[in-house]
Amino acid sequence: IAGITQAPTSQILAAGRRMTLRCTQDMRHNAMYWYRQDLGLGLRLIHYSNTAGTTGKGEVPDGYSVSRANTDDFPLTLASAVPSQTSVYFCASSVEGTGELFFGEGSRLTVL
Amino acid sequence: GQNIDQPTEMTATEGAIVQINCTYQTSGFNGLFWYQQHAGEAPTFLSYNVLDGLEEKGRFSSFLSRSKGYSYLLLKELQMKDSASYLCAVRDSNYQLIWGAGTKLIIKP
User: Fold this and answer.
1) Over the range A30-39, which residues count as b (16 or more CB within 10 Å of their CB) and which as e?
2) What is the pLDDT of residues A10-45, one digit of tens each?
3) Which one in A35, A73, B38, B71 has a CA-CA gap of 20 to 30 Å to B9?
4) CB-based contact (8 Å) between A14 and chain B?
């Protein structure tokens, strides 16, 4: 089934640990995004990539890094997790220039 | 600053009609989007408006007034499965989406 796959689905992490959230898409979309969703707030863009080999910072990039080595994969890394990074993380993709995003099922991360 | 406002929660009855409003103030405008998100699931695309007026898609319609910075999502013949959060998002001058916090819609029998 075509779409976006995120892993892990859920994770509990000790503060200070490094964590990588994986995201893979098979729709050959150029653009990919990482959002976090917190109760009472809208989706907030962490990082994005308009095409393989390029990345950009979103609204809340501090504490996160991304890479885009190829079209399909867009991992998000927390170098040293802090409790404020407890959230649900969504990876998404789109045809570049459109606003119709296709989302993965989300990764629920708890940092203790 | 950029801001998207929508009601936090609304309640409606099965079979009825409900209108979810969204007002926005953004740096530039390149389209307004509505997404549906069921609890514990990913958002899914519902509609897109870039010109003023009404776009109809089955039981769902979306309206846009750019001069007023206003949109609404109209849901007709409500079904229990329509219980979800509805997210309003505006694409700004940098072609980035700015999201509202979402409206939780509760459908009662």
Assistant:
1) ebbbbbbbee
2) 999 999 999 999 999 999 999 999 999 999 888 999
3) A35
4) no
How remote is the C-alpha of A1 from its chain's centroid?
20
Q: Which two tokens stand for residue A8?
A: 């892990």
* Phi, psi for residue B69 in degrees, rounded to 5: 60, 50
Query: Using an 8 Å Cβ cutoff, are B86 and B105 in contact?
Result: yes
Averages of pLDDT over each 10 residues, chain B, 109 residues = 92 98 94 96 96 96 97 98 97 90 97
Residue A100 and residue B91: Cβ atoms within 8 Å? no
Three-state DSSP at A58 gives coil
Give the length of chain A. Answer: 112
Per the listing, tokens 């846009």 go with B64
Q: Which two tokens stand for residue A93?
A: 């993709």
Q: Token pair for residue B47?
A: 């509609």
Q: Is B24 on the interface with A (CB under 8 A)?
A: no
Task: Tell me the DSSP string of B47-80.
Answer: EEE-SSEEEEETTEEEEEETTTTEEEEEE-S--G
In order of A50, A99, B21, B59, B83, the CA distances from A95 in angstroms are 9, 8, 28, 26, 29
pLDDT of residue A1: 60
